[in-house]
Structure formats: structure tokens, C-alpha cells
Amino acid sequence: MENVKKVLYSAVQPTNNLTIGNYIGAISNWKQLQDDYDCFFAIANMHAITVRQNPAELRQRTLSLLALYIACGIDPEKCVLYLQSHVSAHAELCWVLNTFTYVGEMERMTQFKDKSARHTENINMGLMDYPVLMAADILLYQADCVPVGLDQRQHIEIARDIAQRFNNIYSPTFKVPEALYMKTGAKINDLQNPEKKMSKSAENPNGSVFLSDDRDAVIRKFKRAVTDSDNLIKYDPETKPGVSNLLSIYSVFSKKSISETESEFEGKGYGDLKLAVGELVADKLAPIQSEQARLLSDKTYLDEVLKRGAYLANKAAGRTVGKVYKKIGFYQL
Ligand code: TRP
């Protein structure tokens, strides 16, 4: 029977701890998408090594991220959850696509410029090639859409350009993917520096709430959040970035609108708001954390998930690489 569902693809790097921003912006939305699409969710460990990693930590974070996907409600029976390095087609297609990508384009990518500035001691070819590997990820699975944060916009654009370039030179080979920017993905900012996005690698760790933070740490970080001095709880990101950030975090975690949230805190002080957000976030994280811990103690199960994922991903990706090799003139036996 012909499959009518569209294909959806996304991935996360198993690098630093994920923040509640990564959760709200990415993984928490994937759960709702899994019934409507044929989903592939990867753990991008080949991307991760573009910045030097500790091998034991990389291995550990790989399993933690897999357990987190499942703990967040992504069903490994419905979706293909797999590890990028288990599918050699990623490296193979990346190589081919490199010959359809210009050095100048890669040098102009903002993430490459940022990361080169931050890792001056290790500006390696992989860092520059990062977007081509990402294009290979997406194009291998003939993905229709790619749910990502706005920070990935340039990467999706390049993937589309490369796909179109190849399709024009040969014949339609790749689906040209669309980015899917989540509407609910209210931007979550740094608690210490509320005009900046909350990031996995902020200078001040009190500004980021990690999915792995325990209840006390979550509450402490919210208590210390930077606000302003007019003690008025009102949503106005321009003039009140700190308070607005707390209100939007409360609103996404409680699934209430911003105006409902504003009225809930009418007449209350910043201390009340900070405590309420901290407790709410801690309450929401607790069941995810305990499920993640439970899964992490069952390595046999996690390995089975990865085996199934690798099998299915290899099957899908192998088809695309086969087509590509044929079109470009690689002699086939
Ligand atoms: N670059 C993405 C990020 O850092 C992770 C990623 C790798 C990805 N390959 C992908 C996202 C393919 C979407 C599709 O968030």
C-alpha cells in the first residue's frame, strides 16, 4: 500500500546538557507530530565531533538523549529513533554533496563564523562542513519537513539549495524540504541575561535551566532570575525582558495564554512569580527525569531501540544513496 504520510526529520546533537529552551523549542513538539508524519529522529553524534568531545561523555550523552526522547513521549515503535553514526550513508552522501557546495557559501554561514570565533584552536574542516552533513541527513530520508528552531534557518536554506542544485543538474532526486518552525515554541531567554536566548553553553550557568537540573536547582535559578525594579507583572518584552521571559515560561509550561498568566499574577510580587514558575517547571520536569533514569538503567532496551532504528534508517537512506550514485555515474555491480 502506498504510504501517504509525509516524512518528517529532525535531530539533536548529544553535546551539552539540553535546556528547557531546547525542550520547548524542539523535543516537546515532536510528540504531537509522530501520529501525522513518518518521523525520523536522529542523535547527531557525527555533528557533535566537529567540536572536540570526551569519548566517554559522548557515549553517555548519546544514551541519555535517546532516553530523553523516549521519556518525552516519542514512541520508538512509531518513529525511527537512531544514531547518525549507525548509518554510513550520512558520510557517503555528505561527500557527494560536498562537490555541489561552494567553499564561499560555507565560509559565510553564521554558525561557522560564531563557532570559529569560539574555538580558534580547532577550526576544522568538519566545522565548516557541518551544514553539508546536515543537508545529507535531511535529504537521505526524502524529508518533507524539518521541525527546527529559528537558529537553524540558514542550515535548512542551504539544504534546499543543495537539493535543488542536484535536481537541476541531474533529474529530480531529492525532495526539497520545508522547515517547520513551531508556533508554540515561545522563545525562552536566559534568566540572567533575558535579552539573549537561553543556551546550552551560556557563560553564567544560572541563566540556563537544564533538563537534568534537580528541583532545588530549578527553583534556585528562577529565584535568582534577573527582573527589573518596577515590581509590576506585565508582559512587555521590550521594556521588561526578564519578567516577560518568566511569564512566557509559565505560559508554555502551564499551557495557558500570556494574558491568562498575567491575570493570574495580578497584584502579586516578583517573588511570587519566580517561585511559581520555578515550582511549575520543576513539577513538569520531574516525571521526565524519572522516566529517563528508569530507561537509562535498561541498556538492553535502549540498544534494541537503536538496532531497530539503525535497520530502518539504513534501509531508507540506502535507497537514496543508491539513486545518487547511479545518477552521478558511479559504476554499479
Ligand atoms: N544542527 C542541529 C542543531 O544543532 C542538529 C541537526 C543535525 C539537525 N542534523 C539535523 C536538525 C537535521 C534538523 C535536521 O540543532
What's a concise summary of this model?
Helices cover 54% and strands 7% of the residues. It has 333 residues and is mostly helical.
Which descriptors apply to this entry?
13 helices; mainly alpha; globular
Question: What does the model show?
Answer:
Helices cover 54% and strands 7% of the residues. The protein contains 13 helices and five strands. It has helices at 20-33, 45-48, 55-71, 89-98, 103-107, 110-118, 125-140, 153-169, 215-223, 241-254, 258-264, 270-296, 299-328; strands at 6-12, 37-43, 80-83, 145-147, 178-180. The chain has a three-stranded parallel β-sheet with strand order 1-2-3. A two-stranded parallel ribbon has the order 4-5. β1, α1 and β2 (37-43) form a beta-alpha-beta unit. α4 (89-98) packs across α7 (125-140) and α7 crosses α8 (153-169). The model has no long low-confidence stretch (mean pLDDT 94). It binds tryptophan. Tryptophan is lined by residues 9-13, 44, 47, 134, 137-138, 146, 148, 152, 155.
Specify the helix fraction band: 40-55%
Strand order of the largest sheet: 1-2-3
Q: Termini, distance in Å?
A: 30 Å
**Biggest β-sheet strands, sense, barrel:** 3 strands, parallel
